[in-house]
Amino acid sequence: MSIQEWSLTVFAVIYIITVFSIIGVVISENRNPVKSLAWITVLLLLPVIGVGLYVFFGRSLKSKRLISNKNKKKLRRMEPYKIIDETQLPLSLECRQEIKLAMSLTGARYFPGNDIEIFTDCGKLFEQFKRDIANAKKYINIQFYIFEDDRLGHEIKDLLVAKAAEGVKVRVIYDHVGSFKAKESFFAGMREMGVEALPFMKVTFPQLATRINWRNHRKISIIDGEFGYIGGMNVADRYVDGLGFGPWRDTHLRVKGPAVAGLQYNFAVDWNFMGQPLLTDNVKQWEVSDDDEVGVQLVSSGPTSRWGNILMLFLKTIGNAKKRVYIQTPYFLPTESLLKALQAAALAKVDVRIMIPRKSDSAMLRLASFSYVSECIKAGIKIYLYNKGMLHAKTLLVDDEFCTTGSTNFDFRSFEHNFECNILMYSQSVNKRMADIFLADQRDCLRILPNVWRKRPVIEKVCESVVRLLSPVL
Asked: Which sequence positions are flagged as catalytic?
């Protein structure tokens, strides 16, 4: 045997051992059997491609902690509010169950007595955001998935640099992959001027495979511990100016009240995860009673979560629905359990409506989303295609008291791979405002009718089905 043949044999043996070792890991992780079988099939039939896909997209972070239990307890002790007995709240049994579930999953406290301002116009949101930054006296903590170095990005940067020069403590977390389009000099310039701007899970060559699939999709801001922001908007011109096919329609909240402490907690966890000191910034203490509106919880989720926190909450709230379920999402790629929950609700004559964009900023995600439409309308779910522009809002409204928004899309990536954060609101008044917004948007939609949907071109159906196979990694 020549040296070349010997080398190839050794390589083949090592490769076969590697493939079967990975299969052993997949089996030992006791994942969903369908997922495990899918990975095993890919590894056996397409071993070269399969190993690459598994290294980048198949690994689990369930055993990794974002923050130590010691530091988590320290942060919780800093929240200046007592723990609420949810059984005494003037809410439905279903809402009290959802509050208890969020507490069990993440320790999320219930904060009564909040003022919620809803923004659906990105221009108006950022005008208010810039005013709050300009008025900051103590600290500014902001976190975005996308922070671009375009016109809006430079406006926000200049404000942050100016506040840092005044002695205000300014911290910025941006997702490294989400902000790839921005030059590194843009963030380096912030740091040189006193802004602590750090990338979340910076992707460099040695860590490429271990970091590229885990993205921080959260959009959280806290200013002086008095005001907070959470929602779906990022720092980029397209959120204000729209795309070529129309304006950008999003949902973002300005929060004033005790719930700002919950936003601060979630920011502090991510800040500590990046190797930074535990934050000790104070938040404003508000005088509230247990039954004050609006009650709020802040729930985070991510690949390190044992239970898939936000997925679990969505399943519970949809399962609890008695009258209506309204969903707005830019990408509709539900897990099997969520699809069944929606179908079960609709078949039980709950009014289930799902709104997605007719045109999207992602052609693949649009095709994948459309692949689920037939299964929905067969169960009586009403599907609406938003015609006015890019619908990027991420809202779930159930019955008359519960609604949530934040960074979580209705797709596999948000539920399983991304670090996300949502605000849960228990309030008839906020629920009504969110329902009114949904119904106003519905006037700019086309409802999908079964007989029309069945007649779309065969090539579209084929493309949708093929792209759907990639749903778990899109």
From this structure: 217, 219, 224, 392, 394, 399
